[in-house]
Write a structure and sequence with these properties.
The complex is a heterotrimer of chains A (about 350), B (about 350) and C (about 300). By secondary structure, chain A is mainly α. Chain A contains 14 helices and no strands. The two termini of chain C are about 20 Å apart. Classes of the chains: A mainly alpha (about 350), B alpha/beta (about 350), C mainly alpha (about 300).
């Protein structure tokens, strides 16, 4: 064993110690532990949402102002959705079904299962999400690095001014303003010749505004974080060492500044995913995109509890998974991380 | 007469802060000969590090060299183009920094960091540089160098990191190596090892060295010549033995007094220099050391600072008083003890006698 | 622009100043930050608007925001006395905007009053008891973080909905927003308590048998008030944002009470004839949030220099 390297697994029995001794082995142990930690997280999300949904006053069938159903119909509906059973039994049944990827039947769209509805919305949400993600990383990081390297210049002020605005304006406001500008005013000015579609799903230009709207807030956060962390790294002793070696500027920036300053940026890609998920709820409503986010909002307004529960669980799974991936990525990019 | 390698003339480096202009380096002139080891001493904040960084043109914002000449082998460093200064750094003059814990890139392997110091300049190709990294690490006595080139800095101890820094500094066989407090951040035992190593390398490679430190013991064991800086200016300069034997500037004297020495009588107490280094934005009038000087006279406060004046062969000092003119018992005693080993021994015995006598009577 | 003044302020206050009180000192630093002062001015203006506009309507100075004027449907700004035009039902946008400001401000400011005791208590408990209690609470906050804010708030308001005047409808929204926002404050307080517990005087108090809770509280508040205020200030725009989104999605305050989020939605439904019906409320939301963010930045720089960078 090399001196100075922390000894790992000293208390474990021989075979296990052999596994945890290698970096890859300890990574495996780490991943397993992280995956196991996801279980209570998702479980609690289910519990919280389930308890919330079942604490609602009245039953899902008495919609305010809607049609009045007869007692027989309500009884049949309760029978069909298992609502006549004790709450605890319903919960156990629900968890059991979730484990089999069965989220139940939608109240709102009779005859359709939640899984079916999510599967229908998934492609739209994923497309916009991926597109936004492809905008966030290069633009956010690029702006942040540029602002840091040109600190206290006009480029810096303009970039950070933009980032502050983008971080403060909610995305439905940004989306609405973009529609006013690019769809309505452009349409009027160009006599209907050039404009961006305000909603729906079709050719590629339908994707531009939703993706940009969705990406704007994460771009602002990424740019601010990148700038702060790059400024921090520029002042480090090892960057001075790099200059003193006589490295060309390009190599100092890439190998010594960015390689360090982007580490905290990578760790925020997990929360970025959460941004995209919650953002999709708003953006899909603004631009009338039939994705999961919009389905969730419709479920909320019509109290479609199986759908609400299903999407919430799915979203929290996605976020937990994204965080897991980021944490594993972190182990690879920062050699100082100890897996304990 | 050895060839002059580096010649610094009337160097001024200033920092333009919102509080005012900081005169970090204020008219410094000195030279380094090929192969020699020059010690630059002074308290922290006296401009030692800024002088060194000026030579490599690595002054951080908002600082800048405002005037003066830095000649390296006759080339004017302050007038070099960006590409020239880049190739100059690490190749002609290399620098080792104070804190090895923070001076290495934490996310790049040690071997690669040393390697790129070589490949940045024309002299070595990657094929040559790679095996040379191991060779260099062996030379600075890093054990198991073959496997440790793949380690990251956090896997190295402080002493090993400083060895790696030294290896990096030496990788291009520079003519001058600037070591800025190379041992300050290390344990005492590790310090001794590093000093030993630097001594040995200096002998083997004949690289000139500029050692920046506040550690007089380090200067005594490594340097031939010494420059004493105070408040951005040189106050005394000369050969090491001579300055140690008869320092002429009260600041140098105080610095030497503040070092505990094993071979010395303890009758005269260790002197700590009272007060703090001056504010370099609004320095005191006259001699900048006068508020802290034990031998201050009126002239020091009012007259402009004196020029560096030759006080002995090869030794210059900037003082109205000069230590040789100070008639004071403690100074005399100190001078005595510094002068001869026998006198010191005698004083030690006297002191011991006085102590036992004192305790007996008590 | 933005960053320029902030950085300038930061550099300026490194100058040693006369020893003035901490708060006075903070106020001086805050005042140097032009954006923060502008933000504060805008917020104060909005508060005045929110307080006076019902009176102005009563006095007849402001057009009744509920009155539907059939001949003035969806007119643009400046037409027949409607400075900002009218909406789909012919209601005056300016007066609806002014009346609507009370909802946003109430949510933003009052929710912090709910978050403060919750965060303080839980953070104190975690830090004070330590060990298993702390572990449990921190695990719980981990899980809470996994739950996206907006989704949680949406679920809560879809379940608990109250009818009545707008301030009654606000109660479940308050609850939901407070439930997602206490975590940050709790973590902050916990960290501060743990730091204070390390101090010798707490050890001394414990060994002499006096209950340290009182001592911790005594030291916690003066030391942590700055960061707590900053955290709460940054919570304001977040709360306003959540309420606006709820209104926009149609699950917030129900009509006829105007809210900004709902006005954006209404205008958005009929965007082609009169886009200004969207622009005014959208800009109002954006700048209100921006103003609070600037105040938060200013307070952070003024109250807690350590939090900078």
């Amino acid at each position: 064993m090399i001196a100075g390297r922390p000894k790992r697994g000293a208390l474990l029995p021989g075979r296990l110690a052999a596994i945890t001794d290698s970096r890859l082995g300890s990574l495996a142990v780490y991943v397993v532990r992280r995956v196991l930690w996801m279980i209570p997280v998702v479980f609690f999300v289910i519990v919280i949402t389930f308890v919330l949904a079942h604490s609602a006053a009245g039953s899902p069938w008495d919609k305010a102002g809607g049609r009045q159903l007869s007692d027989v119909v309500i009884r049949n509906l309760n029978e069909k959705y298992g609502l006549n059973k004790p709450v605890f039994e319903q919960f156990v049944l629900y968890v059991w079904n979730v484990l089999h990827f069965d989220f139940g039947l939608s109240y709102q769209y009779q005859g359709k299962s939640v899984v079916q509805l999510i599967a229908e919305g998934w492609p739209y949400t994923a497309t916009i999400g991926v597109l936004a993600f492809c905008l966030i990383v290069p633009i956010g990081v690029g702006l942040g690095v540029l602002a840091a390297l040109r600190q206290n210049t006009r480029i810096d002020y303009a970039t950070m001014g933009f980032a502050t605005m983008a971080a403060s304006f909610p995305n439905f406001v940004v989306g609405a303003l973009m529609v006013v500008f690019f769809s309505v005013l452009f349409y009027k000015w160009s006599g209907g010749y050039f404009f961006l579609p305000a909603g729906g799903w079709g050719v590629d230009d339908h994707l531009i505004m939703p993706a940009v709207t969705l990406a704007l807030l994460p771009i602002a956060y990424t740019a601010r974080l990148t700038r702060a962390s790059t400024l921090e790294v520029i002042r480090q002793d090892y960057v001075r060492t790099a200059w003193a070696k006589g490295l060309p500027e390009r190599l100092v920036v890439i190998r010594h500044i960015l390689k360090n300053s982007l580490i905290p940026v990578v760790t925020t890609l997990g929360p970025t995913f959460a941004f995209l998920v919650t953002g999709s709820v708003i953006v899909e409503t603004v631009f009338s995109i039939p994705g999961i986010g919009r389905a969730f909002v419709l479920a909320v307004t019509s109290r479609d509890y199986p759908m609400i529960l299903g999407t919430t669980v799915l979203f929290s799974l996605v976020i937990a998974f994204a965080n897991l991936v980021v944490d594993i990525l972190y182990v690879f990019i920062d050699p100082r991380v100890r897996l304990s | 007469m050895a060839q002059t390698l580096l010649q610094v003339e009337d160097l001024h480096t200033q920092f333009f802060t919102s509080r005012g202009v900081v005169h970090a380096v204020d008219g410094v002139s000195f030279h380094v000969d090929a192969g020699e080891t020059l010690g630059v001493v002074g308290e922290s904040g006296c401009g030692k590090t800024m002088t060194a960084l000026s030579i490599l043109r690595l002054i951080p914002d908002p600082g800048r060299i405002t005037s003066g000449r830095i000649l390296f082998r006759g080339r004017e460093v302050t007038k070099m183009t960006d590409e020239e200064i880049r190739d100059f750094r690490g190749n002609d003059v290399a620098m080792i920094f104070q804190d090895p814990m923070t001076s290495l890139n934490p996310v790049t392997r040690i071997g690669r960091q040393i390697e790129e110091a070589m490949t940045a300049h024309e002299r070595f190709t990657a094929q040559v540089a790679r095996p040379r990294v191991i060779e260099l690490l062996k030379r600075v006595r890093v054990p198991a160098a073959e496997s440790r080139v793949k380690d990251y800095p956090h896997q190295f101890s402080g002493g090993m990191r400083q060895r790696a820094m030294i290896a990096m500094g030496l990788s291009n066989e520079p003519d001058l190596l600037i070591a800025d407090e190379p041992t300050t951040a290390l344990d005492v035992t590790v310090q001794a090892q590093i000093i030993q190593l630097m001594k040995q390398l200096n002998r083997e490679l004949n690289t000139a060295m500029m050692l920046i430190t506040h550690n007089m013991a380090l200067v005594a064991s490594l340097c031939q010549r010494i420059v004493v800086m105070y408040a951005g200016r040189i106050v005394e300069e000369g050969p090491v033995e001579q300055i140690f034997r008869s320092p002429q500037h009260p600041y140098t004297w105080s610095l030497l007094r503040s070092v505990p020495r094993v071979d010395e009588a303890r009758k005269d107490r260790l002197v700590s220099i009272k007060g703090l280094p001056p504010d370099l934005i609004s320095p005191p009038s006259g001699c900048k050391f006068h508020p802290r000087c034990p031998f201050v006279i009126d002239r020091c406060k009012t007259d402009p600072e004196p020029e560096l004046e030759e006080v002995a062969s090869g030794q210059v000092a900037r003082c109205w008083v000069l230590m040789r003119n100070v008639k004071d018992e403690s100074v005399e005693a100190a001078k005595q003890s510094a002068l001869s080993h026998e006198a010191a021994e005698k004083l030690k015995q006297d002191a011991a006698a006085a102590e036992t006598g004192g305790s007996a009577s008590a | 622009m933005a960053v320029a003044t902030v950085d300038q302020a930061a550099r300026d206050w490194e100058v040693p100043e006369e020893q003035v009180g901490l708060w006075q000192d903070a106020w001086i630093r805050f005042r140097r930050n032009r954006l923060a002062v502008a933000g504060l001015a805008l917020v104060l203006f909005l508060i005045v608007v929110a307080l006076t506009s019902p009176l102005l309507v009563k006095l007849g100075i402001l057009i009744d925001p509920f009155k539907q004027q059939v001949f003035d449907i969806q007119v643009g700004p400046g037409v027949r006395g409607h400075l900002m035009g009218t909406d789909l039902l012919g209601r005056d946008t300016l007066s609806r905007l002014m009346i609507g400001s009370e909802v946003s401000l109430t949510v933003g400011l009052l929710v912090q009053g709910i978050i403060f005791p919750i965060g303080l208590t839980i953070g104190l408990a975690a830090g004070y008891f330590g060990g298993r209690v702390d572990n449990l609470l921190m695990r719980f906050t981990d899980i809470w973080y996994a739950f996206p804010d907006l989704l949680f708030v949406l679920v809560v308001v879809s379940v608990w909905r109250l009818s009545g005047p707008w301030y009654v409808q606000l109660i479940p929204i308050f609850g939901a927003i407070a439930l997602v926002n206490w975590v940050g404050l709790a973590r902050l307080v916990r960290g501060q308590v743990l730091a204070i517990k390390e101090k010798e005087y707490i050890e001394a108090a414990r060994s002499s048998g006096s209950p340290p809770l009182k001592l911790i509280l005594k030291h916690l508040l003066p030391n942590s008030l700055g960061p707590i205020i900053v955290t709460l200030t940054f919570g304001i725009p977040q709360a306003i944002f959540l309420e606006a989104v709820l209104s926009f999605l149609g699950v917030g305050i129900q009509p006829p009470q105007p809210t900004w989020g709902q006005m954006v939605y209404d205008g958005y439904e009929q965007i082609y004839p009169n886009p200004t019906a969207v622009v005014f409320p959208a800009v109002a939301i954006g700048f209100t949030l921006l103003a609070f963010t600037f105040i938060g930045d200013g307070l952070r720089d003024a109250l807690d220099p350590r939090m900078r960078r």
